[in-house]
Amino acid sequence: MLQAGGSASGIAAHLKSCRCAHPRCCQIDCATLCERQLARMEPASLVLALIGCVVVYVMLAAVRAVFFPPQPPKPLEYKPRQVGDLTLTELSKYTGHDPTRPILLAVQGRVFDVSMGRAFYGPGAGYSLFAGKEVARALAKVAVDEEECTNNLEGLSKMELESLADWERTFESKYEVVGRVVPPLRLTLEQLAEHDGRDPGKPLYLSICGTILDVTAGSGFYGPDGAYPFAGKECARALAKFSTEAADLTDDLTGCSLAERDSLRDWQARLYSKYKIVGELVKEEGGAAEGSKSEAQSEAAAAAAPAGPADAL
Hints:
By secondary structure, this protein is α/β, with parallel strands linked by helices. The protein contains eleven helices and eight strands.
């Protein structure tokens, strides 16, 4: 019979050489001994293994800290995007009230992205009045006055013109030019009709209450094959009545209910926010607008103003 306390090698040798009449008894004793050996060894082995893992981790962390020091995260870099040609009406959308748009202002027709100067030109800041406007004259006179927000330099003194030049150099060194101010288009209905999408070389325009929008990006909706084939047309009444009838392609809102007029204002807010305002509709050939505005055009004046975040549907 194998004695208790034998080593593992002794146990193996005993199993090979044992001639006991009761081998089953020897196997039971050997199994019991093995369990006891393992029970004595397991806690110590686990502790040693854990200590070893901790030591290796500390050594690897030290090596990494010395030879591969962690790099600070790169700050998010703002990259201005080009906006191209803007009318003053379109520029007025970029005041910082809409968080999805940059803050822009213009100096003698050049449009600067001043988003990085939000502390100066953002909503509530000292020069927030300049955002979304042409401000050459105001800079020359160092006047935070909406009436001076124009590119008209007539009557300025030499000192004021030098002040404007200094401001321009400052803007050039700090901010990027992303576009330019252009005069608004003045199209008759006949001229507007040429932009209905049938000529692929021309942009798609539509008019809402006399305000012309470039809806080229939405050609799938407003082009000849779209659900709302309004390109090349005045569509104020059609939007108010949610109609695609040819008879409703006009700015005449006579007979429209208050609900329909509210619907039109909602459409205006959505489309003015999404598409560029590029001009205005005129009644006479040669670009001379009529002296009086229609009822719909008068209502559109407020809607053409830049919408706040709650209004930009």
